[in-house]
Amino acid sequence: MDKLVDKQIELNKEALKNRTVLEPGYRIVVISTNKRDLALEAKTKLMKQYPDQKSYLYYQSPNFKLQFGNFKTYKDAELMKKEMSTLFGENLLIIPAQIEVKADKQENENRP
User: Fold this and answer.
1) What Rg, from alpha-carbon coordinates, does the chain have?
2) From the CB of residue 21, how many other CB atoms can be counted at a distance below 10 Å?
3) pTM of the predicted model, to two decimals?
4) What is the C-alpha separation between 34 and 44, in angstroms, rounded?
5) How is the chain classified by DSSP, letter by letter?
6) Residue 27 near residue 70, CB atoms below 8 Å
7) Domain residue ranges in the chain
8) Under CATH, to which class is 21-110 assigned?
9) pLDDT digits over 7-29, tens only?
């Protein structure tokens, strides 16, 4: 019985470590278009160039909006925007957003 309880405790710790929470931050709007194929093409380009970052494709009638990244500070978003401008031009826009953060990263930052 103790082994089962220990195993369940371990599984619960692992699940909590891998969960994400939402907090205020910034994302970069890469494209806003009424052509789905253009939005998907931009998303594919982002995934190839930045595989470690997440991109989010939203449909807000009549436009498809592609947002990129989970940046805690405006400065971090600005640095990425500058890097991305060679691929996507100067029309990138930084917006405030609820961003996804790994729960264990958030807990580590809150510790003294």
Assistant:
1) 18
2) 13
3) 0.77
4) 17
5) -HHHHHHHHHHHHHHHHH-EEEEEEEEEEEEEES-HHHHHHHHHHHHHH-TTS-EEEEEETTEEEEEEEEESSHHHHHHHHHHHHHHH-S--EEEEEEEEEEHHHHHHHH--
6) yes
7) 21-110
8) alpha beta
9) 777 777 676 666 788 899 999 99
